[in-house]
Write a structure and sequence with these properties.
The complex is a heterodimer of chains A (509) and B (289). By secondary structure, chain A is of the alpha/beta class. Chain A has 2 domains: 183 residues, 3-Layer(aba) Sandwich (Rossmann fold); 244 residues, Rossmann fold. Chain A is built from 17 helices and 16 strands. Chain A is globular, with a radius of gyration of 22 Å. Chain B is mainly α and 289 residues long. Chain B is built from 12 helices and 2 strands. The chains are: A alpha/beta (509), B mainly alpha (289). Chains A and B meet through β9, α9 and α10 of A and α1, β2, α10, α11 and α12 of B.
Chain lengths: 509, 289
């Protein structure tokens, strides 16, 4: 990464962006990231020190019982990942509640399966850990969790069929999903049945969809940060004597249009000139002409945006073969597959900026929640493991459990208000919204989203950004960024661009 | 469009045209002899791709030996389909169409259940470099499709002109009744045609295994352009299919470059519809060879 100085951030006047020196910015980011990590690990400790509410009767905790051993079968790593829960009281007996059904409704096959299928591993690890303690402790009862899956192949009509099956036959209360077209198809039905649909994409959120939640996936925030990080690694406009150029392509689908609008907005706000912004058909098999057309616009940055995992590999191959030499950014890079087509040296030369970090990234340190998750994952799904998935752990393996955990936290918090029964999803969401902060996999989070998406159903949390590392031959975190202050500085420019593309929530039906 | 982009687009067009031709010649050969379209041809290509994935990517065999194995797989599939579907349904065009449509889904489910539905199968490129000429860069892997297409077409033409079996195949495609009266065994000829078509699909599958994403639905993605090229070129005409492959390769590539991929899909299907309306037999009719 080139060393250069940036000016201090100034208040946005629709034309200017607050800037700081690179060193100060990275220092702030390191501090934020470190604070996030410390806060995430301290939160459960602090919570457990809080006094229990006295006015509502609750099953008296067995304070006299000594918790000297973990429950049978529960490992230390599983206990560590459960530390995010404010009130799990591992080892303490409570009455058993009914089984709580959780759904997964997303692509388990097809070109977008790379965003769905790996996510089951993280969900399974979490649910099994919870169940080994007897179940999720809510309002004085332990409720075992059970996962039900449905492969919608990313097709809206199948998603609706799956939603009906999961809700009417399996009585699921919470659905992990990918989103996009399927979110649109299932929203009315799930709203009617008050079932939470945790999309990967906040752009699915809308005021008339009170049970669509998102943000765990940090999309589109990470897409927006791509422009900022790219600008930091490129020569300045002053040095090269012209505006920096940004090209973007992704497949033609609802999710991509929404996310691309936010990313382009951030690119414009960051000072880029947009030279290419086109969507390719989902049936595309030949990406050579697409890449040729992009390269012809001489971009300094090429964004693959939300390109499905299958497509992003083929796009990377063409970028390499056609000799692109700028910076490549995207939402999610699958390096294990990409490196079967391109040399690692090329990936490093074009930076390979994305998000969705790996849980075994040294950034997180050890001991940490991430280190425990990594050990659990390798033990169960790694090479030679009982459920070996024949691949390395990816940034998607944790991508779906990231909202399931806050839902569990919300259930525990809401359960304290009304002990003895499982709280409604309205109560769970209200409990989360009332918290100034709660732990997430990526750091302390809070509920947000009114300004961008019209409803406070999004988890706002630190956004880790990666760059390809030649030493590791994989992605590595380079910064852990705080989205809200930056967004406040640039939002007037960004929202204008999103409106131009008809993608603000009040423009979408 | 500047000069550099024009050269690159021409290079991209030539490369993809070779791939379309390689995929489509087997389809048109089978139709020419059996007078039935094999909708599962794309899945024969998929089977060839999975053969290379299994042998080269997973088992460490040489890429080229894996491609030979893909040819064998395709040939066996072709013979099997001819014996079980086309032979019993000979003369029943609609029945053959429906049967091969069903076969598409059977193949897809079998492959999905065996190899898994989820993520695409990565096949490492044995040649991770591009051929550069006049400033354009094209993957060497794609360039390979052109000599293979030339060799396959030339070989097929040579076989059909100078070998007894080849001449018999031509006779069946021109007039099956007359050929039968001459003592030519129609069963053996249709089996031979499907064996060759399957083998050609295997070659195509082997070569595209490192170009396309390998999933059970690969066949669906391949069959549409193959059908378009075959229909426009003329069912049964290898020369026509080759010309059509290049026409469509150029149209799709140029439209994608100048407008976008969605428009390219629309244009290609529209042209097919127009050709069907004006000249239903296609550019060069349905004679084989």
């Amino acid at each position: 990464m080139k060393e250069k100085e940036l000016n201090d951030f100034q208040q946005d006047d629709e034309e200017q962006i607050r800037q700081t020196t690179r060193r100060e910015f990275l220092k702030k980011s390191v501090k934020i990231g470190a604070a996030a990590g410390v806060a995430a690990s301290l939160f459960p400790i602090i919570s457990s020190c809080k006094k229990k509410p006295e006015e509502k009767p609750a099953a008296a905790p067995a304070e006299e019982k000594e918790v000297s051993k973990l429950p049978s079968g529960l490992t230390e790593d599983e206990a560590a990942i459960l530390s995010m829960l404010p009130d799990q009281q591992i080892g303490v007996d409570y009455p058993q509640g009914e089984e709580i059904n959780v759904g997964f409704l997303g692509a388990l096959s097809g070109p977008s399966a790379g965003w769905g299928l790996p996510g089951l591993t993280g969900i399974n690890i979490w649910i099994d850990a919870v169940n080994k303690t007897g179940g999720l402790l809510v309002g004085g009862k332990r409720y075992p969790l059970r996962l039900h899956t449905f492969d919608d192949e990313g097709i809206a009509s199948k998603a609706l069929q799956g939603a009906r099956q999961l809700v009417l036959e399996r009585n699921v209360k919470f659905i992990n999903a990918i989103g996009g077209d399927p979110a649109n198809a299932t929203a009315p039905f799930l709203t009617e049945h008050k079932v939470i649909y945790a999309s990967l994409v906040p752009t699915d959120m809308h005021p008339n969809r009170p049970y669509v939640v998102a943000g765990g996936d940090i999309t589109p925030q990470c897409n927006m940060f791509n422009a900022l990080i790219a600008k930091m690694v490129l020569p300045s406009e002053k040095e090269i004597g012209r505006p920096l150029r940004y090209a973007l392509t992704t497949q033609e689908d609802i999710m991509s249009h929404q996310v691309a609008a936010w990313e382009i907005g951030a690119a414009v706000a960051t000072g880029f000139e947009i030279v290419y912004e086109k969507f390719f058909a989902v049936e595309t098999t030949d990406f050579a002409p697409i890449v040729s057309a992009m390269i012809a616009t001489k971009p300094d940055v090429i964004s693959l945006c939300e390109a499905w995992p299958e497509y992003q590999t083929l796009l990377w191959e063409q970028l390499y073969l056609q000799g692109y030499e700028g910076v490549v950014v995207q939402n999610y890079a699958d390096w294990e597959t990409n490196l079967t087509k391109i040399p690692a040296e090329y990936a490093a030369s074009v930076k390979g900026i994305d998000s969705f970090p790996l849980m075994d990234d040294p950034w997180w340190g050890s001991p940490s929640w991430q280190a425990s998750f990594t050990r659990l994952w390798n033990k169960r799904y790694g090479p030679g493991a009982p459920e070996d998935v024949h691949r390395k752990m990816t940034g998607i393996d944790w991508d779906h459990v990231i909202w399931l955990i806050p839902w569990c936290i919300g259930a525990q918090l809401a359960g304290k208000e009304n002990p003895g029964k499982w709280p409604s999803n309205d109560e769970i969401l209200e409990a989360l919204r009332a918290q100034p902060s709660f732990p997430t996999i990526l750091g302390p989070g809070h509920m947000s989203g009114e300004e961008m998406f019209g409803i406070k159903n999004m988890i706002e949390q630190p956004v880790p950004m990666n760059m390809f590392s030649l030493d590791a031959k994989d992605k590595r975190i380079i910064a852990h960024l705080n989205f809200e202050p930056w967004f406040q500085a640039i939002k007037h420019v960004v929202i204008k661009e999103v409106e131009k593309r008809g993608q603000m929530y009040y423009q979408r039906k | 469009m500047d000069k550099q982009l024009l050269i690159q687009t021409i290079a991209n067009s030539i490369a993809i045209s070779g791939i379309y031709a390689l995929i489509a010649i087997g389809l048109t050969l089978a139709f020419g002899v059996m007078q039935m379209a094999n909708l599962a041809h794309g899945h024969f290509v998929m089977a060839g791709a999975y053969a290379v994935y299994a042998l080269y990517s997973l088992s460490g065999w040489s890429f080229w030996i894996a491609v030979v194995a893909a040819v064998v797989v395709g040939t066996i599939l072709g013979i099997g389909v001819e014996r079980t579907i086309f032979k019993p349904l000979r003369g029943d065009v609609v029945g053959g169409f429906i049967a091969t449509a069903g076969l598409m889904f059977i193949f897809e489910v079998l492959v999905g259940e065996f190899w898994g539905w989820g993520l695409s199968r990565p096949v490492p490129s044995p040649y991770k470099y591009a051929v550069k000429f006049f400033g354009a860069a094209v993957s060497f892997q794609r360039i390979l499709a052109i000599p293979f297409t030339v060799v396959c077409i030339a070989g097929l033409g040579f076989f059909m002109r100078y070998f007894r079996l080849g001449r018999a195949l031509r006779a069946v495609s021109q007039d099956p009744e007359a050929a039968a009266l001459q003592g030519i065994n129609l069963d053996r000829m249709t089996m031979l045609a499907m064996a060759i078509a399957g083998g050609l699909a295997g070659v195509a599958g082997g070569l595209v295994s490192v170009i396309y994403a390998i999933t059970p639905s690969l066949g669906h993605r391949i069959i549409l352009p193959a059908l378009i090229v075959t229909v426009v070129g003329g069912m049964g005409s290898i020369a026509g299919v080759t010309i059509a492959a290049f026409i469509f390769g150029f149209i799709i590539t140029f439209v994608t470059t100048l407008i976008d991929g969605v428009a390219a899909q629309m244009v290609s299907v529209t042209i097919m519809a127009i050709v069907l309306a004006i000249r239903p037999r296609g550019i060069m009719g349905h004679e084989v060879g």
